[in-house]
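Structure, all three chains, one model.
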Amino acid sequence: MEFNANKAIYLQIAEYVCDHILMETWKTNDKLPSVRELAVQLEVNPNTVMRTYDMLQQKEIIANKRGIGFFLTGDSVRNVKSYRKTVFLEEDLPLFFRNIYLLEIGLTELEQRYRQFVEQNFN
Amino acid sequence: MSDLFNTTRFFALIRRQWVGFGRIYLMSIGVIAGVIFCFYAFNVGTNYDHLQHDFANVYSILNFRSPLFCVLGLFFVTVISSSYFADLGRKTKAIFELMIPASQLEKFLVGIFYTVIIGISSYLLIYYLIDLAFISYLRGFGPSVRTEVNELGEQVTVEFWQYFFSVDYPSGAYYACFLPVVLNAIFLLGGIVFKSYQYIKTAISLLLYCVVWMSFFVYLMKTQTENTVGRMDDNYWSDSNHIFGLITMTGIALTLIFWGIAFLRLKEKEI
Amino acid sequence: MITIQNLNFSYSKSRPLFLQMDLTLKQGHIYGLLGKNGAGKSTLLKNIAGLVYPVSGMVEVLGHNPTRREPSLLREISFIPEEFYLPAVKSEQFLKANAGFYPNFDREHFYRLIKEFEIPVEQKLAEMSYGQKKKYIISFGLASNTKIIIMDEPTNGLDIPSKAQFRKIMASAITDDRCVIISTHQVRDLDNLIDAVILLDEHKVALNAPVNLITDKLCFKKMKELSFDVLHAEEALGGFNVILPNTLAEDSKLDLELLFNAVLQQKEKITNLIKVDEYVRPV
């Protein structure tokens, strides 16, 4: 996995896990890779992965079954989405706003393009 | 497990050291065997005609044996002694040697085991075997005993073509047995102290040291005995064996001292 | 696990290397040891391993004084030097001679590592390439299952795939009762692997802190223009790489090179922010 230079590694690993959940390569009630397995796979310190898992657990995206490992819960997908939404609203949207403001793209033009995009990609 | 000495670890270390030291040891003993063989072969070969015709009277061709035995033996002992710890002079090897989980005492004793016990006994064995082979061969030329009549008119059998190890040595010779061991101690120490060219440096240091002491003693004797007359009393020191004994005791003491210093230097070797 | 107090060390009287150095290392971490050339990285490692004698001060490793070189300590240390020597024997013979000294040596694990590193075991060790030898002793060291693993520039001489293998192997090597110390110049090789940084400068430990503490206190980012509170900045493509006090509690990624340069240039400013003392002193 290529890490980008500016974002904290544990957050990038969280993104990685969330991607797998949203793409359903990991499904509800599946066991996640152990801390060590994921650390080896991503070539990072296990303590970093542990930090990721702790955070995801707090956000109730994953759950720890004592002595067995980390699992996806029934709420995983919903919680990932709400987590992603927060990240998007806090980090990506301001950037986006900044650009449309600077480039003087009107909201009507934006709305029109948005509808077009949804039609092309999701119908 | 004791941090000082443990038998299992000691034997494991003997096995381990063979991997590195065995090669040097086998090469040295091979060369030594070759040299001994050549000396015998050369002396027998050049006198081959005499052996055929004048068999009983040429046993002086074996006169080289004692000096060869001594010189070669001391050389062999010093070479393997100074090379045993030579690895410590090379950083890359030394780290590995020092970090091996065995006590410093065990490491030192394995060094003694290889250079003294294995070194000296294998030299004796090799020399003995080569001598045995050649002498047996020579004895094949004819009878090796003859009968003579001594001054009292008794018949005695004289054995010539004697095996080197069955020759009667002068009693003083046995007092020199400490020599290989003290040299072992000195060259072990040299191997630990010097970082490169251990053998040459140790040999030169030893030589300088001996020269200094000898000059000192000569000077001392000279100032003490000048204008005096020697008197042969029947005192303790007039028996040369007692003097030899004293030298041997000094030699043994020196051996222990040098071993002690070598052990301490090994223990505190820094990289 | 490792405690160093008031360590003074020098190779010659006129040129002291360490002056009153203090350092505490705990288990369960991979420490990255950084410092300029000649700052004494290798020497610090040798002090820990007991290969050199301090002038004064205390070095304690697992409750032992390492200069006593007791077998009970030596069997808990794997020291992987930058330059090393392997004898002209095959792997099996090497194992037979050496593995027995490490009571926890795990042969199965060793074979797995050898396989992962793709080291051919049929040839004599002395005939291997530098990189293969290095991977071999790393494998031997890790399979010894010692509590302390000391590595001096382990990625030097490794090719690109080997470096990735090395990172994977190290990620699996760290356990809660182990302490790994890796000295390196090539910070990029180990960026995500280390979770604590030790920085040597001016005869002392300039910084010893876990990575998450550093990123709690400092923010590493790219800026188009420098703001007033920038602690350290380096020009980069299209702006500056900067270190700021992390007042907004942002989660940024530690940039070791940037931190390294910042500490060398303005130690006080940086280290005061990262309250090193809380971490360095045993509680």
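The longest helix of chain B spans residues 7-46.
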